[in-house]
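Please, structure for the following, as tokens.
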Amino acid sequence: MITRKKKITLNVNKKCLKYIHDDISSILFFDIETTGFSAKSSDLYMIGTGHYIEDAFETTQYFVEALEDEEHILNIFINLISNYKAIVHYNGNTFDIPFIKTKCEQYGIEFNIPESVKSYDLYKEIIKFKNVFNLPDYRQKSIEKFLMIERDDEMDGGDLIKIYKDYLKETSDDLKETLFLHNYDDVRGLIGIMDIFKYINFLDGEFADYTAEIRVSADSEGESSKELFFRITACDYFPAELTVCNKFGILKFKADKCFLSCRSHPLELKFFFNNPKDYYYLPSEDMAVHKSVAIYVDKNYRKKATASNCYVKKQGDFFLSAGCREKKLFKTDYKDPDDYILYSEELFQDKEFLDNYLECILKTF
């Protein structure tokens, strides 16, 4: 067995690491290299780990120089993880951990992640936001590319199977260095992609401050609409520019800023009253009125209101509510899942309302 330690040249935001655990020195990153997908018919030939020590990251790689070393590095790894509060991997729930577990069973080694150790699969965390990043796929290398993390290694895991088998036959230093480099870049990249949480934490409301303003613009047909524009200062620089759109607005990440644009909809919408039994519906007016008023209306021109017709109409500029806590919400009809907020200058200058609205919009992405 060969063990190699090496410092990692990588600048990772510590706040992103604290998404995993407040004590970043108690986090262990790891990645394995194998000769196939099935642990029953393949070999484990390297485990690479990364951890924070003395203001820097360091990798430790355990290499199976001869097949009889496989059991030894399994025991080392099992003992190692018990020293940490969290382990981090990429798609490890599907591949790395089941592979290690099966290998341990083959050797009669008991393997269970201690209850005191939290296991984080970054793939599972990142895939939740696939509509934000909109990448062609969510392999680790694709995340690295998006975050502009450079690799010296040009191989993929499949290429290395033959290289390792050739190494077992001729123990070439060149082949060995190729194997070590690939795993080192995998571990380094695994730590580096923690920076993606700059975007995720931002969407969860982690930013420095913001300004908001209403802009008025016209479309190609001359119809004017209002735009609620937020200029948000982030807590750190975003590694890559990103633009995300949904029905609530357009979000642009750039440098240490984020710009959010929400457009209004000039509509006639309905406000539904909560207690239909207290109202009458006036078909000729297409509106509901309270019983205290309806008693003055001829019985032939009124009928008991139901939930679906207990409304009054209002024209104006409306913004999608996105779940914002606003007392008066409008709909196109009773079963419409979307609520709207009627624009007023007073409301859209209210700091408490804007705080809540911004929080709700960010959660839609």
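Residues 173-192 form the longest helix (20 residues). The first strand starts at residue 2 and ends at 8.
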